[in-house]
Structures are given as structure tokens and as C-alpha cells.
Amino acid sequence: MNFKRIRKSAALVLSAVLAASAVPFSGITASAVDTDLSGNTLLQSDEITLGKLVSGAITENDDDDWYKFTLSEPSKISVAYGADSAMFWSHVYMYDGTNDNSLIYEQTLKNTKNINAIFYLTAGDYYFCVHGGSNGDRAKYDLKIAADSSSLNVPGDGSNNAIGDAAEIELETKYNAQISLNDDIDYYTFDLEKEGSVTFDFAGGLNAVDWALYDNKDDLIKHGIYQKNDVKDSRITKKNNLILKPGKYTVAVGANEKAASYGQYTFSFNYVEKYNDTAANGIIAAADLNRDGTINSIDASIILVYYSYCATGGKETDMNKWIEENYNIKK
Questions:
Q1: Which residues contact 202 (CB under 8 A, 6 or more apart)?
Q2: Which of 63, 214, 223, 262 has the fewest C-beta atoms lying within 10 Å of its C-beta?
């Protein structure tokens, strides 16, 4: 096989996307048949139409059937592959033709004859290869690749994969975005004219994502992980309040480092200037907690730190006592 370089992120998704299909090979009716040998190499790939079934056959040892499909925009794609009972061994591969033909998915099937897999991919050209075994396997298979647009509305062309290429966004605007198998981090930047409370409102059908906040010097201010509260949750829903001074900020959202997952998400940054008049994490920041004679962002920040402490297992339920112990403040 050619182009055998696999992306690091692909290795994290393989176990999640391979599953035995409940639909046997005989249950797939082909609408197109590969009757020629033009698809024997990547450069001779047969174009396939998304959403249409195609039938092929492994006719000799180490035979390859190559297919090409194109996504005009970031999409959720589903791959259904089924081989008949004569196919003891088969191997499938998917390559990112827009990014140096890098290998983004591979599976070797033994006894398991079917694949139903979901991928989230960027716009571009892709190649799918079916490779027969070297032990005389000669059999038929069916393949269907379908795509649903992710309907993203983030500014730019999707190349916001580095802090210097962050997409400029507006406050108080809801955006649709996607963590893709071949595009697993996004950067966004916004300007804050006045100090205030900024709420990072995030929701997505992923298991977990890493996020980070940077200042106008690209120095890391804060970071964390958004994840489902319960394994039964269908998606992540999080709101994080941040007290920020005027300036430029950049936020990164990426696949979780320890357990990457992929999918669509929505987010917004909602701003309140007079945050002392509003609730911060359910508590009104209208007390001089550090006893310096004024009610300001320091008091609000203390509340957020305390509730972060409680959310991560802290046992002290008397906030005033906790403040006295941690900030050396006495009544």
C-alpha cells in the first residue's frame, strides 16, 4: 500500500468508530457496479457519488479498489461497508487527499464483515481503499458513503488552527463549529472594550473538549476541560463565567488530549459590564469579600474561585471561613 502515514488523532478514534453492523451483506442492494479495473491505485481512483451504493469485488490476491469523494464543506459522514461470506480478510483505509494524502483511518476485518462508522471531516478530497488479503480471498462487497453538512457559521475558511490564525468573532453571537478528525483544534479571538463578566456558553455532542484562554500577549490565563456530567448525558452543556479586563483575548477549543472525541458544537461569549448587579454562578457579587472598602472584580473573582473549589471536591461549606483561611482576611 502507498501513503501509509497515519495521523496521531486517528489512532484515538479507531476503537470508537468500528462496530459490527446489524445489516448483513445480503441486505444491501447496489445501485452501481464497479465493472472495470480503473480503481486499482489512488491516482486511478473511481469517483463515487455521496449517498449512493457501489458494489465492488476483490478478484485476486492483494487486489486494491480505490474510491474518491469530495466534501464541499465540513460534514458528518457515515461509511457503511459490507463484504460477503467469502471474504475472510479485508482491509479498509481512508486518506485525506487535501493534506498530503495522510492516512486518517484504517481497519483490518477478520470474520467481522461489516463496518458502520461516523466521521467528522473538513472540506476537501478523500480516498477510500478496499484491500483484499493475500490468502486467496476473492469476494464481493458493497460500500456507501453519505454526508450531512455541518452548517458551520464561524468566520473564515476553517484555517483557524493556530493562535496566530484565530477567527475573529463577536460577543453575544452564537456560532456553530466542529472538531474534526483532521482538524482537531479551533482558535477564536474577540476584543473587550471595558472590564466585565464574560460567560463562555458551550454545548456539543462530544464526550470531552479541552479549552484555554489567552491574553493579548498570547500568554495562557486559564484552561480546563468541558465534559459530560454523566455517561448517560447526550451532550456537553457548560457555562463558565470569567471576569476580564479590557483587551484582546483568544480562546482555543480542541479535542481532549487523553480521550479525543469529535463532533459539532455551539458556543457564544456573552458580556455584562455591570456584573456586580448580576448573578455570578448563581451568587450575586454584591459584598466586599476582601474587605478593602470597595465592591469590585476582586470580590467577584473570589466567589468564582470558591465555587471552583467546591466543584472540584472542596469540603468547606462556610464561604466566609474559607476566604479568611485562604486570603488571610480577618473580620
A1: 209, 211, 226, 236, 237, 238, 239, 240, 253, 265, 266, 267
A2: 223
**What tens digit of pLDDT does each residue of 126-166 get?**
999 988 765 546 678 899 999 999 999 999 988 999 999 99
Contacts of residue 53, defined as CB under 8 A and 6 or more positions apart, other chains included, come to 28, 29, 30, 31, 32, 142, 143, 144
- Residue of 155, 13, 10, 128 lying closest to 70 (CA atoms): 128
Sheet holding 114-121, edge to edge: 53-58, 139-149, 75-83, 114-121
| Torsion 78-79-84-85 (CA) sign | negative
> How many Å apart are CA 314 and CA 191, to the nearest integer?
34
Instruction: Give per-residue pLDDT as tens, 162-206.
Output: 999 999 999 999 999 999 999 999 999 999 999 888 999 999 999
- At 92, list the grid cell: 479498509
This prediction's pTM: 0.70
- Asked if 42 and 65 count as a contact pair (C-beta separation under 8 A), the reply is no
